[in-house]
Every structure is written in structure tokens, then in C-alpha cells.
């Protein structure tokens, strides 16, 4: 079993103790020959859902060396075995966990070519009923933990003159979704961060991709406290989002919607917000 950070902070010192990661090295794969540079990746939220699908998608190509992280050590290890990756179970909300993960990834795979930030949680219900600690949890996991990790890995990418940061957003962050006010706000923050950072990195060789999925068939909805009950839009498989992440990373795309038709309501809202709100009030 891969040890995970616990929610209990250590008594001695402000940082969590480093866990013993699953150090089983990836199998030798077709791309690992002399003169061939194997690509490297760090995927967060990889124990389930979109993160796990991304890990398996990249692992299937055979020329990626990966470090995967997530909070469930059992599921994470299974995903790592399936994708020939190295697992590092961690709770990135704990002090020092982001630094330990970044250090471990650099020591394991060398420079990180691709960071896929897939970790995230939600909460469903009216805002006035939302427990105060849940507000902090959503922003800590969905926004702050991601920003801290990007901050640690970005200098190495800039120094190398190449690399890509892929941030998994949500349609909720573009449109705002009823009964998901805080989750919508967190994902909107992530999308704006992606846009601003992209301008800042222009000319460095480092790109930023914002992936905007709609409803995805993952355990996310059960864990947020309310399952998805609407008949439409129908959930898309996590593997479809993983394909989009891989394509965006390889082709250097700035923004990707999954499915693609989701661009339409986002554009309507941007061009005619009054019309969008009337349609949203009528059709939900």
C-alpha cells in the first residue's frame, strides 16, 4: 500500500512528514531507447475520474514517464500499475505536501514536461446551507493546491524553454451553475488564472491549456453530496476528456471544450449575457 498524508498535522515542525512513495519504476517502454527523449508528466487527482483516465491514456502510448498523485493510496496504486507510472499518495492541502511532491517528481522523472492538474472536489446545495469549512475545502483543493504546485514546477519549465500546464476546469466556471455557487467560483478562478498566466508566459516556450468539460461520468457527483439526475446533457466518459487532454498537450491548444458544442453557450453568455440568462432561467 502507498502511504498517504493524513489530515493530522505533525507535532514537530510545520511540514508533513514525507511518505514512502511507491517507488516501483515504470517498465521499460518502446520510447526509452538511446537518442530518444521520453516525455515526462505529473498528474494530480489520478486516483479516480478524469485524472485516472488521463494517466491511463498517456500510459497507453508507451513513451511517457509519469508520477501520479491522489489522496486514495489503494486506487492510486492500481492506476499507477495500469499506466506503468510511479505513485505518490498525498493530500496537497497539507503544509509542505506540494513541495514534497514536486521534489519527488523531479527526482523520479527529471524535468516535468507536462503537468495535468486534475484534482478537485465539489459541493452541491444552496449556498446558505453550505458549511463554512466546505467553502474552504473547495477552494483549497480546486484552486490553491493547484496554484502552489504550478508555482513550484513553472520555473523549471521556463528555464528549459518548454513544457505545458493543463488545468482541468469545468463548464460551471464559465456559466455558473445553480446550487454549485462555490464550485462555480473556484473553477472560474482557475480559468482566469489560466488566461492570465498564458499571457505572462508568452515567448517562454511554456504553454497553458484550460480544459473545460461538461458533465463527466465519474464518482465526482456522488462525492459532492448529490448525484447527477438530469436527463441532459448526458455525461461523457472520462476517457473522452483524457483524449482531449492528450491532444491539447501534444498540439499546444490553449482551450478545449468537452464536448465541443459547449463553446456555444459560453459564447452566447459572453456576447449576450441578458439573452443567456433568460434562456438559462427557462431551460435550466
UniProtKB/TrEMBL annotation:
GO terms for molecular function: oxidoreductase activity. The keyword Cell cycle does not apply. Residues 1-40 are annotated as: Disordered. Residues 39-219 form the Ketoreductase domain. GO terms for cellular component: membrane. Residues 7-19 have a biased composition (Low complexity). Keywords: Oxidoreductase. SMART domains: PKS_KR (SM00822). CDD domains: SDR_c. It comes from the Bacteria. Belongs to the short-chain dehydrogenases/reductases (SDR) family. This is SDR family NAD(P)-dependent oxidoreductase. It comes from Streptomyces tagetis.
Amino acid at each position: 500500500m502507498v502511504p498517504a498524508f493524513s489530515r493530522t498535522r505533525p507535532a514537530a515542525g510545520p511540514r508533513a512528514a514525507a511518505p514512502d512513495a511507491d517507488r516501483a519504476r515504470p517498465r521499460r517502454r518502446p520510447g526509452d531507447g538511446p537518442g530518444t527523449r521520453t516525455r515526462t508528466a505529473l498528474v494530480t487527482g489520478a486516483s479516480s475520474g478524469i485524472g485516472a483516465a488521463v494517466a491511463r491514456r498517456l500510459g497507453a502510448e508507451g513513451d511517457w514517464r509519469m508520477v501520479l498523485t491522489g489522496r486514495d493510496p489503494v486506487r492510486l496504486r492500481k492506476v499507477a500499475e495500469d499506466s506503468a507510472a510511479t505513485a505518490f499518495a498525498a493530500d496537497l492541502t497539507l503544509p509542505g505536501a506540494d513541495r514534497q511532491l514536486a521534489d519527488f517528481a523531479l527526482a523520479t522523472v527529471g524535468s516535468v514536461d507536462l503537468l495535468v492538474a486534475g484534482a478537485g472536489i465539489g459541493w452541491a446545495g444552496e449556498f446558505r446551507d453550505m458549511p463554512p469549512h466546505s467553502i474552504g475545502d473547495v477552494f483549497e483543493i480546486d484552486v490553491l493546491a493547484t496554484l502552489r504546485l504550478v508555482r513550484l514546477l513553472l520555473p523549471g519549465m521556463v528555464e528549459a524553454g518548454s513544457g505545458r500546464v493543463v488545468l482541468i476546469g469545468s463548464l460551471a466556471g464559465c456559466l455558473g451553475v445553480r446550487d454549485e455557487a462555490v464550485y462555480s467560483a473556484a473553477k472560474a478562478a482557475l480559468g482566469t488564472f489560466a488566461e492570465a498566466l498564458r499571457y505572462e508566459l508568452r515567448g517562454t516556450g511554456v504553454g497553458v491549456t484550460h480544459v473545460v468539460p461538461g458533465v463527466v461520468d465519474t464518482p465526482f457527483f456522488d462525492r459532492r453530496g448529490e448525484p447527477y439526475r438530469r436527463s441532459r446533457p448526458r455525461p461523457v466518459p472520462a476517457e473522452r476528456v483524457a483524449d482531449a487532454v492528450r491532444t491539447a498537450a501534444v498540439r499546444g491548444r490553449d482551450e478545449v471544450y468537452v464536448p465541443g458544442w459547449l463553446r456555444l453557450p459560453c459564447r452566447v453568455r459572453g456576447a449576450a449575457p441578458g439573452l443567456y440568462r433568460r434562456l438559462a432561467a427557462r431551460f435550466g
